[in-house]
Recover the amino acids of this structure.
């Protein structure tokens, strides 16, 4: 194993050294760029566009364009990309995955290849894991792009069609993977080409690329239309299932499947007064009963979905976010509505569908960034033809990665977590606790309340407060319990986020 690590480590170093030759050229232009006035620096954008029209390639102008963007970042944002960030930027331009450790500034790295590729006029899409980050990054990094004369758009849930069209026509568009995918589906359903939102799928940089292109890759995006009206059979099936005992059904926990046992089948035939549960003539009853079983025993409230304003709202299993407007297919959503005693809405039928994997493979060029990609490099290579470049850190890593602690009983684990929180809280150390489900986050919250520990809870039920909670997670004495909805791409600054505090006039506020 040591030999393999040595060989593959050397291969990565060779790739980094190749990129460093380009980076040397970028850094050699630094003094020249510093000497330019704001107007002269901005004028470089039109100069680059003209040079591209005259036959030069993006690779030809890369060193100078990166140097211009680097200086613009400093003047507009007060941040100047380090050498290692320039390396990451070149890797992204080359259509590769830049693996950068947490806190190394991936958001700033993206400005360099985004600016360069936007000069073609064909558009660049920056893909984030949620609306909050898309909006934040568009506003934040947009200052540098605007400084250089480029237009910015942001595609998030709830914006009007006209605003959406303008966002896609911009030089640079920020948005989430789901918004891009659904807009593609809607574009393929329009009658008139003028109604289409997106232009050609030119170049995309995917933030948290392993989450989007691997974890969620095969999750289908589905646009549904209204199908047949729901029947009372959902309530009848739910009532029947509620009366069953454990010997009437069998659950396959691993594959999340459930089926009736022979005893359960007999009870079903008696309840619905049918001779044969498996008869094709009884398929409607069969289907409703199976969906009711799934709803009752496989779908958990506050894990898979929540009830909000009298509606069943799906919780995204990867991000922990509420998926407004999305419904489970094949009658499962209606079965859950019957289970939860809310209005059972009409069934839906699929009008258009695509997986994220198939959608992103349509881009002319695709790249991504994450802190964890090397372990899945084979999959990236095979499916997307992208390799992974491990980018060195700007300074040596001083974080301590501790070994896992394993408990035989879940209750022991939770008690140990609470004890650890209390010990560290005594010192004033800010604490962030990550949980997989809403249920676990609320369980920890109850336990901490019993022990008198003030804290914040961030999950899909309280997503409106996300920006405020995350901004304060690094303050002295703060304890934050969060599902994975807040974990990806969010800056938690020790002492609190001063920019957020200033924007929202929250200085001096205390949080319980």
């Amino acid at each position: 194993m040591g030999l393999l690590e040595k060989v593959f480590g050397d291969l990565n170093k060779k790739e980094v050294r190749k990129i460093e030759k380009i980076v040397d050229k970028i850094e050699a232009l630094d003094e020249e760029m510093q000497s330019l006035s704001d107007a002269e620096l901005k004028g470089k954008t039109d100069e680059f566009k003209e040079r591209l029209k005259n036959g030069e390639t993006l690779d030809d102008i890369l060193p100078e364009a990166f140097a211009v963007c680097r200086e613009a970042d400093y003047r507009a944002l007060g941040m100047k990309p380090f050498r290692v960030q320039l390396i990451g930027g070149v890797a992204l331009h080359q259509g590769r995955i830049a693996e950068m450790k947490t806190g190394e500034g991936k958001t700033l790295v993206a400005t360099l290849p985004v600016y360069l590729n936007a000069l073609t006029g064909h558009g660049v899409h920056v893909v984030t894991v949620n609306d909050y980050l898309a909006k934040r990054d568009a506003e934040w990094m947009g200052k540098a792009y605007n400084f250089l004369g480029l237009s910015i758009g942001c595609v998030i849930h709830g914006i009007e069609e006209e605003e959406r069209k303008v966002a896609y026509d911009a030089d640079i568009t920020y948005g989430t993977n789901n918004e891009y995918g659904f807009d593609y589906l809607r574009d393929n359903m329009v009658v008139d080409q003028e109604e289409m939102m997106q232009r050609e799928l030119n170049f995309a940089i995917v933030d948290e690329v392993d989450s989007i292109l691997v974890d969620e890759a095969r999750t289908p995006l589905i646009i549904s239309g209204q199908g047949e009206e729901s029947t009372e059979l959902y309530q009848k099936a739910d009532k029947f299932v509620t009366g069953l005992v454990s010997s009437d059904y069998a659950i396959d926990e691993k594959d999340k499947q459930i089926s009736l046992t022979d005893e359960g089948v007999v009870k079903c035939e008696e309840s619905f007064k049918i001779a044969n549960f498996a008869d094709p003539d009884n398929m409607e009853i069969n289907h409703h009963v199976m969906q009711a079983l799934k709803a009752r025993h496989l779908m958990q409230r506050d894990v898979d979905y929540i009830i909000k304003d009298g509606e069943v709202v799906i919780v995204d299993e990867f991000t922990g976010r509420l998926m407004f407007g999305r419904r489970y297919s094949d009658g499962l959503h209606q079965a859950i509505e019957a289970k939860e005693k809310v209005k059972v809405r009409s069934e839906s039928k699929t009008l258009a569908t695509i997986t994220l994997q198939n959608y992103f493979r349509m881009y002319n060029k695709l790249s991504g960034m994450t802190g964890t990609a090397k372990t899945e490099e084979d999959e990236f290579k095979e499916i997307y033809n992208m390799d992974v470049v491990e980018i060195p850190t700007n300074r040596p890593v001083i974080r301590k990665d501790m070994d896992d602690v394993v408990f035989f009983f879940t209750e022991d684990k939770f008690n140990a977590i609470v004890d650890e929180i209390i010990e560290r809280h005594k010192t004033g150390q800010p604490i962030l606790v990550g949980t997989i489900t809403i249920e676990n986050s609320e369980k920890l919250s109850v336990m901490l309340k019993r022990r008198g520990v003030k804290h914040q809870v961030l999950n899909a039920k309280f997503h409106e407060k996300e920006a405020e909670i995350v901004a304060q997670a690094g303050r002295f004495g703060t304890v934050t319990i969060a599902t994975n909805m807040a974990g990806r791409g969010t800056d938690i600054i020790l002492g609190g986020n001063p920019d957020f505090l200033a924007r929202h006039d929250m200085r001096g506020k205390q949080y319980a």
In short: The mean pLDDT is 88. DSSP finds 20 helices and 17 strands in the chain. The CA atoms of residues 247 and 261 lie 7 Å apart. The first strand starts at residue 97 and ends at 99.
